[in-house]
Specification:
alpha+beta; 4-stranded antiparallel beta sheet; 23% strand
Length: 88
């Protein structure tokens, strides 16, 4: 599902596999529902630019939300795969 994670300092990017049935916009929408605002770039990349003043507890909270969101994204990809296969 994840093609690459890259970045410098606090600016990070997660890139979704292009062969999946979900994209960066799906990921950003789920993150927003879970309380994190991000931006999809080039359809399959998600840009993270967190606050410059974060404590360890906040970093842990964000990591937990991203992990939860990844599971939800996998579920959405599975649903879209089933829908796509049923349409054929």
């Amino acid at each position: 599902m994840i093609r690459e994670v890259r970045g410098r300092g606090l600016m990070q990017c997660i890139e979704i596999e292009r062969e999946s049935n979900v994209n960066g916009h799906d990921f950003c929408n789920i993150l927003r529902e879970n309380g994190i605002l991000t931006k999809a770039t080039k359809d399959y990349s998600i840009r993270f630019t967190p606050s410059l003043v974060m404590n360890e507890e906040e970093v842990d909270q964000v990591a937990a939300i991203v992990e939860k969101t990844m599971h939800q994204l996998e579920e959405l990809n599975h649903q879209k795969t089933l829908e796509r296969n049923n349409c054929k």
